[in-house]
């Protein structure tokens, strides 16, 4: 068993939170993990990605080979497509619909969504909008994680424990918001990813 | 204990557990988190491990050597280009040797994710004739750091530990061991080896040459270099550092070829020879420059037995990855999905509200008067001024070069010649160049864009805080041509006028554009405000 996940977004959008939850959950489940991330200049509003590889055997490469990612989880629709070369033939594209526009030549939203829809396994959800309803747009990344959760090699309890452990120091309210965000993501995905 | 560590954190914990007494470093991607980890470590604080940032890599390495002289175990950490700055002490301390274990950690950046070049630090290690360790995973980052201190003390030489971006910035689980106590303070038995006057240095250099067979013998018998003989003799593979991971990614446990995994240099000559004798071809997989391939390959290109980056079987530039390695092995690959044309580039950019942006705006207004090619810049967030929408700066070569390049251009007759440099870069390597300009009264205008942090690497504290004005005055900048401005859009007109006046001055002007980095927490900004008075 090996699951390869690319998490995509823009520097500052908190994609490492998703990676950290996966790391912690894998740790609790005694699985092997390698998780590569971007530090440095790109964190200043540039494109960033994290490669997460979870396996029951030793993982060698820190990078996912082209065509081997089981899914790309993106907190921003254009960034989702930037890493298509990594996606498996039947891999999943999962993204927040909310664009992060900080460049003058950002594509038309309709073109982006049409492109994403040409891939059979896709899921576009309004994670930011849903997170705002729950209490803070910051939880959009956890909504995304919830949406992808049925494809992950770690069960719900393991992921929820990791979320609780990660946000514990920020207080009960933040923990509850993120648990709710996770469940919202699960719910939104339930009719699409079966 | 099993812990999740970023590669850099595993290295840092390895150093703490090896009885570290101090780390000396200047921030630089991808090396920064090593020192930051030690700074944030409660254990390191309890143990009184020194971890405050140095002003540059040279001062860092020299301080590390001083601590080693006192018998303690010391780490000095930098990115690859930082080793250029520290090269003077680096080359000479291999002649003097060390007392307490001294490990030089250099993080290379193949593919130049955050750097001006992708130079390979293994060449420096070979140049200095010291042992090099090149971990391939997070566990080795931890284990080899511990081992490096023992090796350094056994040989009385500094040891170079080379990592690369992908390993430094990747997380995995690491098993840690019990911590060893720090060394007692113990001055060297013989201090003369630290006094490199020619008559001593000649003998010491001979000692370094004489110890080379021992260094090689250690690498030869080390479990860090393992030779596995495979069934298929058509190919043998030398896999250095991360090259091993990408090889194994392609074969898992079923590689039919012989593999020499290299984690410690000098190259284990006997093992290389055995591989050479038993295999028809040798593929070298190494991250960075083709160091090993060049060493063992054929200079005249007549015997194509050794293949790798030089022969074109592996990309000549850029980091390795599983696909590049698969291609070099002749493995079949599926064609990856194409990235749609609508995906636009998203380069990094200045944060909203960044003071550097206001400095660029003021200069932009003056460009019709000064011309587009006369602004020299430096290494920092403001290097983004080379890109749209700013398009304001022309040069970014190395730390401090803005001032000295502006001076050289001014010497050639360019007027006005303008330098932009950050506060931390200024104290890193700008001050000496400014003295050159003051000494000759060169007609240059220096803008110190002072955000009171080493912002690009994560807003670390800058040694320049509260000292810039005094430093400039001390160097001899004329008080009437040392100005402090606040880069804010409401001050735009005023700042443009002041810049214009100073650019027209036929001597050295320094304008300190002072506003804290927007990334800093409020408490830190308030703290900085106390130092940043306009008086």
Give the number of DSSP strands of chain A.
6
State the shape of chain A. globular
The average pLDDT value of chain A, as a whole number, equals 95
* Protein structure class of chain A: alpha/beta
Mean pLDDT of chain B: 96
Q: What's the gyration radius of chain A in Å?
A: 16 Å
Largest sheet of chain A: 6 strands, mixed
| Relative strand content of chain A | 15-25%
Number of domains of chain A: 1
The level-1 CATH class of chain A: Alpha Beta
Largest sheet of chain B: 6 strands, mixed
Helix content percent band of chain A:
25-40%
CATH topology of the largest domain in chain B: Rossmann fold
Overall SS class of chain B: alpha/beta
Helix and strand string of chain A, N-terminal first? EHEEEHEHEHHHH
Spans of chain A of 5+ residues with little confidence (pLDDT < 50)? none
Strand arrangement within the widest β-sheet of chain B reads 2-3-4-6-5-11
Give the distance, in angstroms, between the N- and C-terminal Cα atoms of chain A: 19 Å
Overall domain count of chain B: 3
Describe the structure in your own words.
The complex is a heterodimer of chains A (194) and B (535). With 194 residues, chain A is an alpha/beta fold. Helices cover 40% and strands 22% of the residues of chain A. Chain A has one domain: Pyruvate-ferredoxin Oxidoreductase, domain 3. In chain A, strands 2-3-1-4-5-6 form a six-stranded mixed β-sheet, with helices on both faces. Chain B is α/β, with parallel strands linked by helices. Chain B has three domains: 209 residues, 3-Layer(aba) Sandwich (Rossmann fold); 103 residues, Rossmann fold (3-Layer(aba) Sandwich); 177 residues, 3-Layer(aba) Sandwich (Rossmann fold), CATH 3.40.50. In chain B, the strands form four sheets. Chain B has a six-stranded mixed β-sheet with strand order 2-3-4-6-5-11, sandwiched between helices. A five-stranded mixed β-sheet of chain B has the order 8-10-9-12-13, with helices on both faces. A five-stranded parallel β-sheet of chain B has the order 14-15-16-18-17, sandwiched between helices. In chain B, helix 18 links the parallel strand 15 and strand 16. The chains are: A alpha/beta (194), B alpha/beta (535). The interface between A and B is large, with 49 and 50 residues. Strand 2 of chain A pairs antiparallel with strand 7 of chain B, so a sheet runs across the interface.
């Amino acid at each position: 068993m090996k699951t390869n996940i690319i998490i995509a977004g823009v520097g500052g959008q908190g994609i490492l939170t998703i990676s950290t939850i996966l790391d912690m959950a894998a740790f609790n489940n005694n699985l092997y993990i390698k998780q590569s991330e971007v530090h440095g200049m790109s964190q200043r509003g540039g494109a960033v990605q994290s490669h997460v590889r979870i396996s029951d055997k030793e993982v060698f490469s820190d990078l996912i080979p082209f065509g081997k990612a089981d899914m790309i989880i993106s907190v921003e629709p254009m960034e989702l497509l930037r890493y298509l070369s990594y996606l498996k033939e039947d891999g999943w594209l999962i993204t927040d619909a909310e664009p992060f526009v900080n460049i003058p030549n950002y594509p038309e939203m309709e073109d982006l969504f049409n492109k994403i829809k040409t891939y059979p396994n896709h899921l576009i959800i309004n994670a930011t909008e849903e997170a705002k309803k729950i209490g803070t747009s910051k939880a959009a990344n956890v909504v995304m994680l919830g949406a992808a959760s049925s494809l992950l090699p770690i069960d719900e309890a393991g992921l929820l424990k990791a979320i609780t452990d990660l946000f514990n120091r920020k207080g009960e309210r933040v923990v509850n918001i993120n648990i709710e965000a996770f469940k919202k993501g699960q719910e939104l995905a339930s009719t699409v990813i079966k | 204990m099993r812990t999740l560590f970023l590669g850099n954190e595993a290295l840092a914990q390895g150093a703490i557990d090896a009885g570290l007494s101090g780390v000396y470093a200047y921030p630089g991607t991808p090396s920064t988190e090593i020192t930051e980890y030690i700074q944030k470590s409660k254990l390191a604080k309890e143990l009184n491990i020194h971890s405050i940032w140095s002003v540059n890599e040279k001062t860092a390495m020299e301080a590390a050597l001083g601590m080693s002289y006192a018998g303690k175990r010391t780490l000095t950490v930098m990115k690859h280009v930082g080793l250029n700055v520290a090269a003077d002490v680096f080359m000479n301390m291999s002649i003097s040797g060390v007392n307490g274990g001294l490990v030089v950690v250099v993080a290379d950046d193949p593919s130049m994710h955050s750097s001006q070049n992708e130079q390979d630090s293994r060449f420096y290690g070979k140049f200095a004739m010291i042992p090099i360790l090149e971990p391939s995973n997070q566990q080795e980052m931890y284990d080899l750091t511990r081992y490096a201190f023992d090796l350094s003390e056994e040989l009385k030489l500094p040891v170079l530990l080379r990592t690369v971006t992908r390993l430094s910035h990747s997380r995995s689980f690491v098993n840690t061991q019990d911590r060893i106590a720090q060394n007692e303070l113990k001055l060297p038995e013989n201090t003369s080896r630290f006094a490199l006057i020619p008559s001593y240095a000649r003998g010491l250099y001979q000692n370094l040459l004489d110890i080379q067979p021992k260094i090689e013998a250690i690498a030869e018998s080390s479990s860090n270099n393992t030779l596995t003989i495979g069934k298929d003799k058509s190919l043998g593979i030398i896999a250095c550092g991360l090259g091993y991971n990408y090889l194994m990614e392609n074969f898992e446990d079923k590689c039919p070829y012989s593999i020499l995994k290299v984690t410690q240099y000098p190259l284990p000559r006997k093992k290389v020879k055995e591989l050479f004798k038993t295999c028809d071809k040798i593929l070298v997989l190494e991250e960075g420059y083709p160091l090993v391939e060049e060493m063992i390959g054929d200079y005249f290109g007549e015997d194509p037995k050794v293949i790798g980056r030089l022969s074109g079987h592996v990309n000549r530039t850029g980091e390795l990855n599983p696909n590049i390695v698969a291609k070099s092995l002749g493995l079949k690959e599926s064609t990856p999905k194409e990235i749609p044309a609508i995906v636009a580039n998203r380069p990094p950019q200045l944060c909203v509200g960044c003071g550097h942006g206001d400095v660029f705006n003021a200069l932009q207004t003056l460009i019709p008067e000064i011309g587009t090619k006369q602004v020299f810049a430096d290494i920092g967030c403001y290097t983004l001024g080379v890109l749209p929408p700013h398009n304001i700066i022309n040069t970014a070569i190395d730390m401090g070069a803005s001032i000295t390049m502006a001076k050289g251009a001014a010497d050639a007759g360019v007027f006005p010649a303008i330098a932009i440099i950050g506060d931390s870069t200024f104290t890193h390597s700008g001050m000496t160049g400014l003295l050159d300009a003051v000494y000759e009264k060169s007609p240059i205008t220096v803008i110190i864009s002072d955000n009171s942090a080493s912002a690009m690497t994560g807003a670390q504290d800058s040694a320049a805080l509260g000292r810039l004005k005094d430093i400039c005055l001390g160097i001899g900048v004329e008080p009437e041509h040392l100005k402090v401005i606040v880069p804010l859009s409401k001050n735009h007109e005023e700042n443009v006028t002041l810049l214009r006046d100073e650019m027209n001055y036929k001597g050295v002007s320094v304008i300190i554009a002072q506003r804290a980095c927007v990334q800093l927490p409020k408490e830190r900004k308030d703290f900085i405000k106390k130092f940043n008075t306009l008086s």
